[in-house]
Structure to design on (211 residues):
């Protein structure tokens, strides 16, 4: 296990260095966490939010899975959202997809009954909703566009969830953003998806989900 050994060795050096520079650092962060962002991203090893966002420890409450899905029937996703909103009062939620996502490509190319295939049905639902637009695009563009539409769909799932809607109703600050990370140039791209209230979200998606 050379990689794990390397990690353990690095950790020793890192911990000593942090304690040298700031002797109370670990004592302080051990007391409580107060993250500014709930990050919902892909499990892909190239899209680690701490690295690409340059944020210090304690800034991000993280949930990652294949193809950055927020599934409304997934207890894991729901528990993360509930804890982040109701307990930690995290004011920002970011759903971040990425171009070159293996999950998105797999959803486009095949289907099956293995666990990954079943999980990616969530992405196939998004594809089916936008099939007319997506079918017109060349292969690579189609995957990119589906990544963006998937982010939008997951943001939508979050905004229509009672956990977020109840928070908005009681006046709690919650902003939900959709972003895409481009592995080719290392840049985070905004998708024009940003909701700070029930009204903003409903203005975009109609009255179908109004109270
Ligand atoms: Co991915």
């Amino acid at each position: 296990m050379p990689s794990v050994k390397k990690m353990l060795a690095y950790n020793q050096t890192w911990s000593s260095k942090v304690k040298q520079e700031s002797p109370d650092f670990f004592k302080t962060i051990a007391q409580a966490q107060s993250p500014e962002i709930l990050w919902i991203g892909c499990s892909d090893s190239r899209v680690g939010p701490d690295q690409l966002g340059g944020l210090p420890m304690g800034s991000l409450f993280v949930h990652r899975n294949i193809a950055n899905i927020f599934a409304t029937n997934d207890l894991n996703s729901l528990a993360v959202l509930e804890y982040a909103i109701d307990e930690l009062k995290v004011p920002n939620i970011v759903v971040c997809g990425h171009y070159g996502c293996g999950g998105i490509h797999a959803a486009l190319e095949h289907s099956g009954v293995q666990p990954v295939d079943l999980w990616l049905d969530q992405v196939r639902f998004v594809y089916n909703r936008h099939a007319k637009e997506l079918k017109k695009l060349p292969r690579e563009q189609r995957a990119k566009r589906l990544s963006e539409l998937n982010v939008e769909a997951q943001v939508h799932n979050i905004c229509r969830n009672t956990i977020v809607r109840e928070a908005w109703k009681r006046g709690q600050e919650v902003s939900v953003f959709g972003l895409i990370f481009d592995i080719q140039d290392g840049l985070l791209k905004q998708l024009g998806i940003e909701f700070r209230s029930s009204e903003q979200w409903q203005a975009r998606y109609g009255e179908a989900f109004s109270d």
In short: The radius of gyration is 19 Å. The beta strands are 37-42, 60-65, 92-98, 175-182, 187-195. The chain has a mean pLDDT of 94.
